[in-house]
């Protein structure tokens, strides 16, 4: 699947498998084309939830816990589409339900690439014919 991204920001959201709370990870594309985890927001800690590291801030409100200023470059971004996770991706105010495109228990790779208009059209046609 190829998606056009205008503002170079996106959010991946999912239901945590243990605490059943919703987790939102906020990413941006830096000037070198890297995918960078900017912050994560969740309702309560559970297995696999990030802990704040040096220079990261933690914000606690009545509605969520947020770790920001993360600036973690994700070199190989693989996402395992869970059975109960209900993974979604929000890009430019559009919500994409990933389980509508990928079967549960599928491992997908997320990457950022600049494409020529020709490559974009060819990729789009390829997607339609799948």
Q: Which key phrases capture this entry?
A:
two-stranded antiparallel ribbon, mainly beta, 130 residues, single chain, eight-stranded antiparallel sheet
Characterization of this structure:
The protein is mainly β. It has 1 helix and 10 strands. Strands 1, 2, 3, 4, 5, 6, 8 and 9 form an 8-stranded antiparallel beta sheet that branches. It has a two-stranded antiparallel sheet with strand order 7-10. The protein is globular, with a radius of gyration of 16 Å. The termini are close together. This is DUF1850 domain-containing protein. It holds the Pfam family DUF1850. It comes from Brachyspira innocens.
Quickly count the helices: 1
What is the terminal separation in angstroms?
10 Å
Mean pLDDT, nearest integer? 86
Write the element-wise H/E pattern from the N-terminal end onward: EEEEEEEEEEH
For the record, the count of structural domains works out to 1
Structural class: mainly beta
Q: Which regions have little confidence, pLDDT < 50, spanning 5+ residues?
A: none
Largest sheet: 8 strands, antiparallel
SS strand fraction: 35-45%
Taken from the alpha-carbon principal axes, the silhouette is globular
Computed Rg: 16 Å
Helix share bin? under 10%
Compute the number of strand runs: 10
